[in-house]
Specification:
Strand content: 35-45%
Number of strands: 23
Shape: elongated
Distance between the termini: 60 Å
Structural class: mainly beta
Oligomer: single chain
Largest sheet: 6 strands, antiparallel
Radius of gyration: 28 Å
Number of helices: 3
Length: about 375
């Protein structure tokens, strides 16, 4: 955050929620009236500028990930008891400090948008110039999308500025270690990003998780899905929808350990699903074909390993689809008394046990 005025003055920045101050910082401008505040948490800040002999100026500014927020303000001569309020800054959506092209979603928007899989990386396809990879691309995992014609494997994904990219497919990795309810901001930069991001040349996906504050807060949720309202799969000849039941539940909670200095935020989530995968069709031997095998080696392999046969020469079946996933994470933030330094640490785990429907017709 930067500001320019032609008088040295004192600047107060505070991040608040429901009238509770979560974070505050006090700075003094230099002789040219400039100040710079680095490494601020994302969110909407209340800003108050004071100088003896001038009216107090109050305004707001929104801090977003991967951007520089710039304010150009001027103090007016008058009594310090007079307050000038500037309302326009809070609604500024255009990043005027750089030429990068980006899309930013705050926590409220992230939760309000439909997301059946509750995968935050899926929101990348909402940005201009972004399209899912083609159906023939072997890397169809979350995070493998085309941004402005770039390769589907050319994207870089980070969680709290730590790489969360699958090195084999450049899809997402470790997304199960936090809940969608724990996302503070989703940021996608598709073009003209600076060298500080690096690693890949496609797009930069940034996920910032929530942290604890001076105010105790949290959420609880439960999502249920079953086959009652699902459509029948195209290849399914039974006339019924593929059986599938999934329950996803969890909670988030955060608050102060030491008020104004040490905070904690954690989550727990469970996902349990049972059913079958989509039907798959495969060409198989007919009984006549199997009986016609004459090579001794082929006969021995066929007898030992076996293979399905059908008079029609094709089979249609679905493999079991089952999974158990129990994930949790904990984030600790410590702000030092000088108000300028902060240490953040985060740990998460996501053990998964599953039976994949993709194993249909693999022998």
């Amino acid at each position: 955050m930067k500001s320019v005025s032609r008088t040295s003055s004192k600047v107060f920045l505070s991040l608040s929620l429901k009238s509770v101050v979560l974070f505050a910082r006090t700075l003094t401008t230099n002789d040219a009236g400039e100040f710079s505040s680095q490494q601020l948490d994302v969110g909407a800040y209340d800003i108050r500028i004071e100088k003896q002999g001038f009216r107090v100026l109050e305004t707001k500014a929104v801090i977003r990930s991967g951007e520089v927020t710039r304010l150009n303000l001027s103090l007016e001569v008058g009594s310090v008891s007079e307050v000038v309020t500037v309302e326009a800054s809070a609604s500024t959506l255009l990043d005027v400090a750089s030429s990068q092209i980006s899309t930013s979603l705050d926590s409220k928007t992230v939760l309000e948008l439909p997301n059946l899989g509750r995968d935050p990386v899926a929101y990348a396809t909402l940005a201009p110039g972004v399209a899912p990879v083609s159906k023939d691309n072997p890397f169809l995992g979350s995070g493998s999308f085309n941004a402005n014609g770039q390769r589907g494997r050319g994207n870089n994904i980070t969680v709290d500025n730590i790489t969360a990219t699958d090195i084999s497919t450049t899809g997402s990795s470790g997304m199960g270690t936090f809940s969608l309810d724990a996302v503070e901001e989703f940021k996608l930069i598709t073009n003209n990003f600076s060298a500080e991001f690096g690693r890949n040349g496609g797009a930069q996906v940034q996920l910032i998780t929530k942290g604890g504050t001076n105010d105790y807060h949290g959420t609880a949720y439960w999502f249920h899905q079953n086959a009652a309202l699902n459509a029948r799969d195209f290849f399914d000849t039974t006339g019924k929808a593929t059986p599938f039941i999934q329950n996803q539940w969890g909670f988030t909670a955060g608050g102060p350990i030491v008020k104004n200095h040490l905070f904690a935020f954690g989550h727990y989530e469970g996902i349990k699903n049972r059913g079958a995968g989509a039907s798959s069709a495969a060409s198989v031997l007919t009984p006549t074909d199997a009986a016609a095998i004459s090579d001794p080696t082929s006969q021995a392999l066929f007898a030992a390993l076996g293979a399905p046969t059908d008079p029609s020469g094709s089979l249609n079946a679905a493999a079991p689809n089952a999974g158990d996933q129990y994930a949790w994470s904990l984030r600790i933030d410590q702000t030092f008394r000088n108000g300028k330094d902060m240490i953040t640490s985060r740990y998460g785990t996501n053990p998964v046990t599953s039976v994949s429907p993709g194993l249909t017709f693999i022998f």
